[in-house]
Design a protein that fits this description.
There is one protein chain. By secondary structure, the protein is mainly alpha-helical. The chain is built from 19 helices and eleven strands. Helix 10 packs antiparallel against helix 11.
Length: 521
Amino acid sequence: LAVRRFRQNFPAGLAARTEDDGRAALSFRMFPPGGYWPRTKEAWERKTVQFEGGRRKTADVLLWFGATGAAPDAPTDLLDAPLQARAPTDWYRDTAAVLPLANGGLEADDDELAEALARYDRLQRAKVVREAGDPIGPDILGFDDWGKVSIPHLWETAPDDFMGWMNYGDLIWTFGYCSLYYGWPYAMLTHWLRLGDRAFMDVAEDMVRHRYDIDQYHVEDTATWLGGFQRYEKGEHGHLERQGPRHRKWESNPGRSHTWNRGLLLHWALTGDTRSLDVARQNGRAYYRFFYVQHKLGERDELPWREYRTPTWAMDNWLALYEYTGEPEWLERANEIFCKTLLAMEKANGRQGHILEGGRQTAQFVSYVVEPVCRLHHWTGRKDAVLFLDRVLRWQRAAGSSRGFEKNGLYWPTIWVSAVWTDPPDETQPADSAHIHYSMAFSDGYAYLGHVLRDRAHRDFARQLFREYMFYYGKDADGVPREARTPLGYHNRRSVFLSLPKVHAFNGRYGQLLMSVQEGL
């Protein structure tokens, strides 16, 4: 008998014993020991398993009934490391199977840009191959004992947090398990195709299984704001004793503003695992019910939505379904929601790049708009979509960022507002009001505009953002020596349990558009 990732998923589920007649017997627990996960205090005390509605748990099990008794090594080894076919990166990109997708090892005439491109590739590798990273180095916060950190290393180093029936394949941040937010499986799979390191595919497989079993709320016949969405980023996988006071009797609800399906669809395309496709379709239907059934999107001329992450991620989910299934209704819905939310809101506010009145929008939400709008323009050719993005990003650069500058022998990289600044941004702004973390998504947007509109200023600013981010992503608003560099790896000069999953989700998912433009595509 063999089970994929047995130790990680079933840490105490196999027992051997001798029967009275002398025969050996194996006992295999498909479910965890009593009350292991998910659990409440009552379930733990009664030594029972408490199942939580809306979740699944699947496993690959190999039973060998050969005449020799013992299974041969080859098929059991293939459970943890199945054969994977990978075409050259150019094939996926040139056939438009995966867009955007840039080759690894890109070169540039500018020495600093060339260094930044090389650091980008090494940062991605360091997330899955510990030896590819840097030691965390001196850290004033006191978290300097991790050394080099990769995701597989982290999972093994902290088994109580990451191993087990409900946890394996996810990541932890400040507020609990992140439910693989912002498309972690998609990032891992795209870098598998770009760079070819098998470790990307292995991590992606474990993440995808968590995503379609544990992170998905599989119930659809329920409230339209709940059914079929991805679990929220602040949960504890059913361990209610660890939930915040508001949610001690239930797991945090799924979030329509926190649902991503592109990684599921790419996984389905690469492996044929229909469970990934099924969940991606659940997500598409969930957004359809929420906007078309509950909020009557199809019957309205416009649908202003102040929390505009939600229509933005609906666009991305529907576009992903269109790209991978070819079904035109998903593109039509993405088109309609863009027109009636983002485009209509910016038009109502004077076509000045203000999605919200007076430009009272944060860089975080705007950064999420970039990729879906670029994709919509790519597939439809809508000029008003690219002009909308041009206005929004021009405003963001002028009023919502502090451009990079040197002062007193130090370099201040560009930082972006994460709240509303009342005064023009400059070096006097406190560090907690702005971040560098959105530069990677914005570099894609400015690069795309520079390419489509043939605007050199956009292109040059995109490259500046990319360089700054890859050199200084471990800093927020402080000046640094120009020659300083953030250590590369699954850390950020701070604890791996703070906001690292979000930081590395951003820099893993984004950057492909800029590099594709750099390749001249």
